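Structure record:
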Amino acid sequence: MNSQPLYDFAPIARLMFLGVVIALGPLAWVWVRNRHAPPAQRLRVLTLVTLFLTFDLVLFGAFTRLTDSGLGCPDWPGCYGSVSPVGASTSIAAAQEAMPHGPVTFSKAWIEMIHRYLATAVGVLIIVLSIVSWVERKRLSVSYVWPLGTLVWVCLQGAFGALTVTMKLFPAIVTLHLLGGLVLLALLRAQATGYALAAPGHPGRVGLPGRLRWALLGVGALLWLQIALGGWVSTNYAVLACSEFPTCQGSWWPTMNLREGFTLWRELGMNHRGDAITFPALTAIHYVHRLMAYLVLAAMLWLGWRLWRVPGMRATARALLLLAAWQFASGLTNVVLDWPLLAAVAHTGGAAAMVIVFTGALCGTRRAPERAPVSSASPMHLSNPIR
């Protein structure tokens, strides 16, 4: 096997070129369909297209992780110094011959590199969004800070992607990489909502009662916590620690090692002492996520019921209720059917969709002003009855 440097930046220009080529398709489509539209409309459509492709990227990232393809090319940004597995075929064949059941195979290398190509294309689209928003900043009613912030974030996300490979799937790094992709979805959704609100004739943000607005924020925070716990389950491969429902290992409270399971800074498959992680630790990771799921599911059902009665929020309520059912079904399928690939990817997709819906709801609503109580001493009651 050829010795490769830890960080190989030689193919970065060619990788960026491929990203530009892939991004040209969506950019051309947006331009042709909206060439006569105002800048805000073009930016909104381009943001929605980028949001859609980023959602696809999150799903493909889950597919990459679940097929154990994260180290299909064990260097970054290329594959054994090449821009594609074709140029690295000799190194891949040597690695596969040395470890027939190891992390490097031709199929895994292609999965990993396609993930990088898609990520680069999304990065190019975000660069275009930031440039156009800066150029058109004087004619837009929406701040260009959001696209620039998204550009900074996608650069950080790329750095975490590199660390995911070079640190050999370190669970904390992989979980942060997953959360970073979902934050990217939230940033793009916030921008799309802002452009929609700025469109002429839009009725504006929906007013929510103060307590319901706070409930929306609270359930959103619970959702992010649950997603982080789910990412920790996935990156530690703890899904199969409990293979039955609703109990786990025949018990409502199985043997767990919370301290070992939630020691964050450690290598994959190891505990904080450098020994192999114990099964009670994996059980703790799985079961805490399951217990939290009950709370989040109940909170989402209650929130969907409350939002259903608010004018203008019925579509959001319907989406939340459907996604709650989707997450319950896909999560249950992962447990009882031994983690099938389709259900696992669907579970990640449901979490990503929830982030998009919650972000749109938060950005598209406001706290409604409280109605002032009618006082018995109001002027109409104090008017002189004798005229």
